[in-house]
Each structure stands twice: as C-alpha cells, then as structure tokens.
Amino acid sequence: MRPHRTLTARGGLMLFFGAVALVCGFVVGQRELVGVGLFLLLVPPLSALTILGATDRVVHSRALRPYRVPAGTDTRVLVRVGNSSPTWPVSWVRIEDTLPVRLGYEPRYTVGHLAPRAVRDVTYLVRPAVRGRYPVGPLRVSVVDPLGCVRVTRRVGAPTPLLVTPPVVPLATLGAADGSQGENSPRRSVTGAGEQDPIPREYRYGDELRRVHWRSTAKHGELMVRRDEQHWREHSTLLLDTRYAAHSGEGPWSSLETAVGVAASVAVNLLDSGHELRLHTERGQLHTENASGVLDGLATVESSEADSLYGGISTLEGARGSSSSLVVAILGALSPEDASALSRVRGSGLHVAVLCVRAAWASPEDAQRIADLLTANGWRVVPVTDPAELPPLWLRAISPGTSVTPAPVAPTGPSAPWEGSR
Question: What's the rounded Cα separation, in Å, for the pair 305 and 388?
C-alpha cells in the first residue's frame, strides 16, 4: 500500500498563519512579516522531506499465543516493531493493529523514536466471543516528523489468522449411567493389536512370552498364546441444523451458536469415548477424524439458505444412520414436514433430539407439537437454551429407563429453558 501523507493540526495551523502573515505583510508593506509568513509556509514541506521513506524502514512481525482458542477465552497478540535501517532513525512512530469488529476496539500504541536497528515490543489481549476465523492485522504504521507537522501512514504486512473454536462443555459418557464403561464395555475379537483375550492360538515366532496362555499350553502340550482383540467401536451419527431460516438472534446468544456449541460438546464427547462419528449438516458431511478436526470444522460453519432439513434427514435414514448406536439431531425450528420425516427415522440405537429454545419457532405451541411428535416416535427430546445447560439433560437423555419430555413454554424467552421430566 502506498503511503498516505496528511498534515497534522500543527502543520495546518502553520500554513494558515503563514498565509495570513504573508498577505498582511504585503498589504502593510512589512518585510519582516512577509519573512515570517514565508518561513511558516516552508516548514511543513521541509518537515515532510525529513521523513521521506521512513515508513519503508519500519518492519514488524506478529505472533498469536495461542493462534487457536475456544470462544470466550483470551489470546495474546505480540507485535514487534523495528527500524531496518542501520544508519537512519525514525523520528516518531505510532502503530494501530487492524481488528474485526467482533474482536473489539483496534489497539493503538505510541512507539516513539526508533534508533537505527532498534526494536520495540507491544502486546495486547483479545477475547473473541463468537467462533470463526478472524484476520488480525494488517498493521497501520504512522510516522510523524520531528516538528509534528506531517504524518505519513501506511499499512504494512499481511493479516495473521486467528481460529476461534466453539466452546465445549464436558458431558457424561454414553453408558456411564448404567456402569457399562471402561473394562466392562463390550469387546469383539479382531486381528490386530489390542486387549488380551483368553481365547488361545498356537505360538508363532516373534510372539511375546508374556502373552503365553499357560493353562492352554498345559492342555495342548505346546505353547499357546492369547489372541489379540479390540474394544468394539460404536457408530454414532450427529446431524446439525444450520439453516438460516431455522435460527434467530445474533452473536454469541443466537440459536445457531447454541446449536454449534452443543454439536461440538457432543462430538468431542463421543470421539473421546472411542465412537466412530459421522457429523453432517443439511449441506453435507464435516471432518470427524479427530476432536481437533471437528472443532476446526465447526469453527467456520456458516448458516445455509436451505429451506428444508430433508438433506440431513435422508443421511440419517442411510445405512449407517440405521445401524448407529446413537443418533443425535441438533435442531432449530422445524416445519411439520421436516418433523414428520425426522420422526420416521428408525434404528436400534438411542435417538436424541436437541431442540434450541431460542430458534425461530412460530409459536410455543408449534415447538411443543414438534417435541411431542418426536417423543411419541421414540426420540428423547432435550430442550436447550445455552450449551452450559446441556450436561444434566444429556445425562438423563442417555440414561436407560428415563425420558426427557419438554413442558410447554415460550421458546423465545430470554432465559426460560424447557424443563425436563422423568
């Protein structure tokens, strides 16, 4: 970017009074007054020559620590400004980092005089409230001449990306309520490394002696070792409703942000529990190889213009959706057609529907009818206003022998979530 040169208030006043003195000197015939006017008129241009190329000598670097943070937490921005010239100083430097509106006010710092090869460090904190990918920068550098008459401003460098992931709340692991976690979880014998199983096989060269099954060895008269086995990996499917028309509100309190926060919490919980997860929206599938990939993908999810949720519901009706041990649908406002299609999703696993209370429901009665329809077809309905409310409701939803049934309440209320009952 080319430098932008402007007069400061001092420089403007010098030109004004210089012009006045020059005119008055000619009118009254005072040479001294004419000389003063010429001097005042020449000071700003001469001052501009002293900072010619000064902004080109100012270099900088920027570091974010960390560069990837959950929403609502701080990240520290370290900006290092230096003078690249070994001989020429830079008189007076002021910097301003460019930030998006959602990251707050743009920080301004006066660095002051920079001697040759001098370096200055400045740091500041930003706390993004909403997930997303934000550009931090570029840096706006202003240099003022020693007399303070002319200011030269230039943008330097490129923006540094800051990735803000949705916040995650800890949830109870599927099976924790009935004590089927840990060593008591189901296992299936497979080929590969894993847990030891008492079913023996013949000893092969290279097998470790600690895997020898001595009782079978004594019975068969030859070395027998335990077979390898792994824990059975459960399959889970997660549907996130990102339709623009289904959600309401802006910023961190919007129903879309609530839905994404719930999806992040459930997805991380399932992946940490060893589940094989399939996460998708009405537009397609998201990356679910690991928890970090899920959070990175959800950090940049935007609302879609789709009118119907059928694209996501049809995925639930696929082969994997029907064989999943857990199906979770995180929903905004549903139309009767979408709710009817969702209620027909069948499978042997547990089906949980998380309804966002602040979504764009037409009326409390419509929201109640949708919840009753899903409950009548085997879904466990969990109404959520904020992701922080999810842990106790989630525990009750995945517990055997319990149900979560929404009571009629205004979905658009600021802080009145639906109450669950056994």
Answer: 28
